[in-house]
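Hi R.,

Here's the chain you asked about this morning:
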Amino acid sequence: MHPMLNIAVRAARQAGNLIARNIGQQDNFEITTKNKDDLVTSIDKQCEKVIVDTLMKSYRDHSFLTEEAGLLGNPDSEYQWVIDPIDGTTNFVQGISHCAVSIALRHNGKTEIGVVFDPVLNEMFTASRGEGAYLNSRRIRVSNRDSLDGAIIGTAFPTRYRDRMSAYLVLFSRLISNCADVRRMGSASLDLCYVACGRFDGYLEQGLKAWDFAAGELILREAGGITTDFAGEEGYVKSGNLVSGNPAMLRSLLKVCEAQTLPAILK
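And here is the predicted structure, written out as tokens:
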């Protein structure tokens, strides 16, 4: 295993232990609201500290982009760790067993390592650039479904961006009319990993942050998938608007998005 990946896996497991001990135990932690429909708990912050402290022991000169604390470490470093201590905080608070630790490493802006750990199911998704994607050390690949017919698609509604909702619902109506069904699970990093291992055939979501998708997007790519924005371009890195799947599934999803007539608010 790549030495940096090994350290990231260690950090993810340590944070995951905190999640597993506290999920749904609302009397054990504090809950605050960062923005409307956007929660943070004291366990998020503890997990983030555990991850950063573990990584910093080996890589003191690196930069760290974290969901809760923002930018830490050396801002001039070529290396940046992108960390979501609990992706799926609402699920965690409610005791819904679908949340994950997400850790990615970028070198000069390119994601080199991705780790997504589901501590409840003890599922560790990992990838290093050019070396494939794995679930608990077993190689994984995206599904080979070549159309939306019979497909299961992961998605989420833009609840944090309510001004996009009406436009997205039009797109969603077209999606549900063309696929077998959709799943709205509440953890973007795991959604991407579920596409990577073939549980989902595709995935699309609006308005994600770097820590939501950096690790999962690399894992999906190393499993044979492709990610674009809703117009089929590479702007998802900045916009956080992601469409993902194997090459044929991505083309089918982009047809549903109707790039030529896609409302500007969804681009």
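One quick note: The longest strand covers residues 79-87.

Cheers,
M.
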